[in-house]
């Protein structure tokens, strides 16, 4: 049984200075380096969670995701839980690593629209980005395993890469949590950037989400396998970067995780923005993957274990609330 920290402050502060989350490529070089150095700082700090092999403060977040994975995917609170998770990560960057900006996001559909290989995206820049592909590994099978290429579910063949990321600010990054649910293996961060995923990440795939009439349809269409028959923007985004990002459990080991999920969070924000009065409090879906489950409501608690106090979905459906205090641009 895990011990929870006792939190002194479980009330939110009022939202006074709204921060604006922006797409990576519109940040100045200085802002990009400021963000990257804050992430490196988090990775230098000792962990506090003592969860699942976590040694660094950065590992704490990987560990929280690993132990929460089966409870927070393919359920009604998938988007709310990840919104709060990003918020706690961003708060750690601010309060422990002197980060003064807002969490950036990565709109990969802009890269797809460019028609160029994904690896040429500015997000993978070795200086003003997150570094590039992993080293080529012979016969790398991808995080989806040796693929049944003809499967109806749209799985795609792996590309090159699969080994350690060899350039950029995170090439020296050692991970301690993962891979998978139970390992705590010290290792480099890997990627296998996969252009076969491009067809699931087009501007049209993004545009198809906003008109969906209910949260139920929206969340399912966004998240993807195994509820949908083919990949959707959530899982295709993970598998387009692959390596650690393709790991269902320990994907937050790649710092790009937070920018991909911030974009998914923006897509929810965009969807709500079309009709705030009816959509902001539209929440649905089952509470657990397997029965017995209840329906997720606004009172559902988002558990951050020892990393932060729990909040309810109601506390975070409005991004201008005190807990969150941000908007997207
Ligand atoms: Cu997740």
From TrEMBL:
The keyword Metal-binding applies. SUPFAM superfamilies: Di-copper centre-containing domain (SSF48056). Pfam families: Tyrosinase (PF00264). The keyword Amino-acid biosynthesis does not apply. Keywords: Copper, Metal-binding. InterPro entries: Di-copper_centre_dom_sf, Tyrosinase/Hemocyanin, Tyrosinase_Cu-bd. Residues 73-90, 254-265 form the Tyrosinase copper-binding domain. PANTHER family: TYROSINASE FAMILY MEMBER, TYROSINASE-LIKE PROTEIN TYR-1-RELATED. This is Tyrosinase. It comes from Mycena pura.
């Amino acid at each position: 049984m895990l011990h929870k920290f006792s939190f002194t402050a479980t009330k939110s502060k009022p939202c006074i200075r709204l921060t604006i989350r922006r797409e990576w490529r519109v940040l100045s070089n200085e802002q990009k380096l400021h963000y990257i150095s804050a992430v490196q700082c988090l990775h230098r700090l000792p962990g506090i969670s003592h969860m699942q092999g976590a040694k660094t403060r950065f590992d704490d977040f990987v560990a929280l995701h690993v132990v929460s994975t089966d409870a927070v995917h393919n359920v009604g609170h998938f988007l709310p839980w990840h919104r709060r998770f990003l918020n706690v990560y961003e708060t750690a960057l601010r309060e422990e690593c002197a980060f003064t900006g807002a969490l950036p996001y990565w709109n990969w559909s802009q890269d797809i629209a460019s028609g160029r290989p994904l690896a040429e995206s500015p997000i993978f820049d070795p200086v003003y980005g997150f570094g590039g592909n992993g080293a080529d590994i012979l016969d790398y099978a991808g995080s989806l395993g040796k693929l049944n290429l003809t499967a109806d579910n749209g799985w795609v063949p792996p590309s090159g890469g699969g080994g350690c990321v060899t350039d950029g600010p995170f090439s020296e990054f050692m991970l301690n949590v993962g891979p998978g649910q139970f390992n705590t293996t010290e290792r480099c961060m890997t990627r296998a950037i996969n252009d076969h995923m491009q067809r699931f990440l087009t501007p049209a795939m993004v545009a198809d989400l906003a008109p969906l009439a209910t949260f139920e349809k929206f969340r399912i269409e966004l998240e993807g396998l195994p509820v949908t028959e083919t990949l959707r923007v959530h899982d295709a985004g993970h598998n387009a970067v692959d390596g650690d990002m393709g790991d269902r459990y320990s994907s937050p080991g790649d710092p790009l995780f937070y920018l991909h999920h911030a974009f998914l969070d923006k897509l929810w924000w965009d969807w709500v923005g079309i009709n705030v009065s009816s959509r902001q409090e539209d929440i649905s879906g089952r509470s657990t993957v397997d029965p017995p489950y209840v329906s997720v409501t606004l009172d559902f608690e988002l558990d951050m274990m020892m990393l932060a106090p729990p909040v309810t979905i109601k506390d975070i459906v409005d991004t201008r609330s005190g807990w969150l205090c941000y908007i997207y641009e």
